[in-house]
Amino acid sequence: MYKTCNYRRYLCFVCLSMIAMSCSSYRLSKQKVSYPLMENTITIHKVTSKPRKGKEETASYVFFNMHENENTSVRAVKKFLKENPGVLFYLEHDGNRIISFRMDGEIYRFDPNRIFTDEGIRKTLLRHGHFSKEGHDVVQGFGTFLIKTTAAYAQSGYVALHNNGPNAYSIMSYQAGGQYEADAQAIHQNEEMDIDDFYFTTDSLLFAELSNKNWNVVLQNNEEGLDDGSLSIYTGRKGIRYVNIEAEHGHKKAQLKMIDVLSGIWEESLK
Ligand SMILES: [Zn+2]
């Protein structure tokens, strides 16, 4: 009797899973490419949503997660992509934020979101260990490869995804007296929202739209923001639309909602 019951439960579970799978409008197609970084290998994953019925659709922006230990955001985007067109790129190496490689007996370490300008590469290598011209060139090659790989899917810009811990980096970091105050041109804070969940953008139009909807949002000072080699600085200086959706680790529901809201206004605000 007990076994039959378990079997029935199993059948029920299988049926429900099949119904859930068939309910999503898109299936996720996964590809990956390996980038050799001296003896280390970085895997760049690409997830594309394909409609189950009808013709292929694409979004004009691309999702990009660079920090491997910030995977709440990847789970949120994958859920979004099961219902919407789009492409996501994310990196895999050894599970950490920092990427390392060995060359000529030295260990080099860098933050993958600090490698999109020369100044950023210099700072991140120095901060995390060793710097040399040769090391700089290796990291620059990787940064250029990431831009080339993602740019084809970012016709109208980038949506970066990050997660943070409580009581650390937050929208408060950009308020008066905060660590990154000088990097913000404008800020809108909804006091009801968690301070760790906020948008950070290079685009004044999106800033205005998100402020109007009363979301936590920061507009980057594209001209005078500190050159840390991040994708926001790179895109801000090139006039490319960029939004980082930042949320606390584990805030998958909140981050998914933020992705939904942004996608709802992105294309409209381009017209
Ligand atoms: Zn991050």
The CATH architecture assignment turns out to be 3-Layer(aba) Sandwich
Number of domains: 1
- Helix content, binned percent: 25-40%
Structural class: alpha/beta
What oligomeric assembly is this protein in? single chain
User: Rg, please?
Assistant: 20 Å
String of helices and strands: HEEEHEEEHHEEEHEHEH
Strand content: 25-35%
What does this structure look like?
This protein has 271 residues and is of the alpha/beta class. It has one domain (26-270): Aminopeptidase. 35% of the residues lie in helices and 27% in strands. It has helices spanning 2-23, 72-81, 118-128, 133-151, 204-212, 231-238, 252-266; strands at 26-37, 40-51, 61-65, 87-92, 99-103, 106-110, 157-164, 184-188, 198-201, 217-220, 242-248. The strands form two sheets. Strands 1-2-4-3-7-11-9-10-8 form a nine-stranded mixed beta sheet, sandwiched between helices. A hairpin with a 2-residue loop joins β5 and β6 (106-110). The longest helix has 22 residues, at 2-23. Bound molecules: zinc ion.
